[in-house]
Amino acid sequence: MSGGSAAAAGDPPGGCRAVSIWSIGVSVYFVAVIFRTSLGVAGLDATERFGISASALSAFSILQLLVYAGMQIPVGLLVDRFGTQRVLILGAVLFTAGQLGFALAPSYGTALAARALLGCGDAMTFISVLRLGAHWFPARRAPLMAQLAGFAGMAGNLVSTLLVARLLHGVGWTAAFAGSSLAGVVVLVLLLFLKDQPGRPRTAAAPGSGDAAPPPDRAPVSVRRQLGAAWREPGTRLGLWAHFTGQFPAMVFLLLWGLPFLVQAQGLAPDTAGDLLTLVVVSNMAVGLVYGQVIARHHAARLPLVLGTVGLTAAMWALTLAWPGGRAPFALLVTLCVVLGACGPASLIGFDFARPANPPERQGTASGIVNMGGFVSSMATLFAVGVLLDLTGGEYRIAFSAVFVVQALGVAQIVRLRRRTARRERERLVASRVTTVHVPA
């Protein structure tokens, strides 16, 4: 099934207005990622400000991921029930309050609570942006729009690395974090101009195509039925495991363990290690654009891209960790970071399995289920690497072996679900053709 087919009847047209509306939603996600990743450049400052150990510092990241992952299904349900604009406004209020609270926090406990609040608001952004894209652009553009949203998130990561770090060292903790929170106020104003979907009514499309808006008089579906219906679709579960398997290697590397690994185990200077982390982000942005274009044109490329990225990531990690003497050549570390940059785009392909499997009124719920996968695997691996480092006295070769265990689990589930998902998509394609033939113009 090619992604380049003609638009179905009732498909949103896209165009300049769609781009402007979608850009408002993406700007909210962009700011949320800046706030989410700002702690990454303030780790040493945080240990001094709050007088905490390295393990206490890691609790910031783990708590934030825990809140984010735990909020995915509730947020999906909220988006389906109340629409994109309301959820994004709530999210922007929460993550702005969290960033401001972090700036003014007088103690470690207060700072933790602020990061949890930030994580809660951050969790409301990406799923909302995905749903906004589905309502304003043709279905064939959905893979590209998802990757472009991911591109904006990585741009936010870069801004955090380059701008927030300079602010922090230039004007100090309180001024840097409080000043950056003003970006949240700006996007709150922009959200007043957001519209959930085009005003014109759209005609019914094929069941599960995700192209048509739900009838306005649809009675609310119970949470249990909504979740059950989304979970029963094999495409939703395959999307979850694709996200689970694809995202975590880069997330773990960027969020916490990459810098210590490069400095302590590989002997790089901190500035050089920081440059390699930036390379992961830049690679993510470039690969995301390529993957989005490929999938938009060749729908069948989804699974090969996911499995190929996972396999290449595992091979590069194995080569790096098994290098004689323990210190890999710099060129190999550069290659590893470039490959890790493909992990984020590969994980986003999970949404392209769930999207055609669910009707419009379940898109938020299904996306929430998928998005939970990568953050669960990231939390588990962050914790496992930390435990193994403690048990082995800082032996990174053993600690990072957790990556292969989590990848093996994810690949096994992807292989188990791939045929069932393909069969279900063929059934929907046949149903779509039958509907097109029998519905009068």
| Helix amount | over 70%
Low-confidence stretches: 1-7, 200-219, 436-441
Task: Estimate what percentage of residues fall within beta strands.
Answer: under 5%
Instruction: Assign the structural class, choosing from mainly alpha, mainly beta, alpha/beta, alpha+beta, or little secondary structure.
Output: mainly alpha
Brief characterization of the structure:
By secondary structure, the chain is mainly alpha-helical.
Characterization of the model:
With 441 residues, the protein is mainly alpha-helical. The chain has 2 domains: 13-195, Growth Hormone, Chain: A (Up-down Bundle), CATH 1.20.1250; 229-441, MFS general substrate transporter like domains (Growth Hormone, Chain: A, Up-down Bundle). Helices cover 76% and strands 0% of the residues. It has 18 helices and no strands. It has helices at residues 16-37, 43-50, 54-82, 84-104, 108-122, 126-136, 142-171, 173-180, 182-190, 223-232, 234-265, 270-297, 302-321, 330-340, 343-354, 363-392, 396-399, 402-438. Helix 15 (343-354) runs antiparallel to helix 16. The radius of gyration is 22 Å and the shape is globular. The two termini are 24 Å apart.
